[in-house]
Amino acid sequence: MSREQLIFSCVFIGSVFISSVSQILLKKSANRNYDSVIKEYLNPLVIIAYAMFFCSMLLTMYCYRYVDVSAGPILESAGYVFVAVLGFLFLREKFTKKKIIGMLVLLCGIAVFSLGGFIPLFQ
Question: Which residue, 19, 64, 69, 122, is the most exposed by fewest CB within 10 angstroms?
Fold first, then answer.
């Protein structure tokens, strides 16, 4: 993996994190009661969340110029971990054994995929 690919892989992960934060904002907005449908969809949390999604999408598309297409889904799977951790921190969601095992499997998969570029044994 070249230095450029490594840098843009990190930027890609940052983009996934931005997308995860926007999902938490949408969930927070969905948990509120609104007087009208207009206020439900045109409130600051929803607008900011969709703006973050849009920026995340643009950033991801730019990163695909430098990151292998096969690496994209692997890097995007980190979003499941980000959403679970952010949900725990901001929404008071609980970590179950299944969630913890799932996150560990995801992280191990990301690590194995990432090591494939560094260790000749995996190539």
Answer: 69
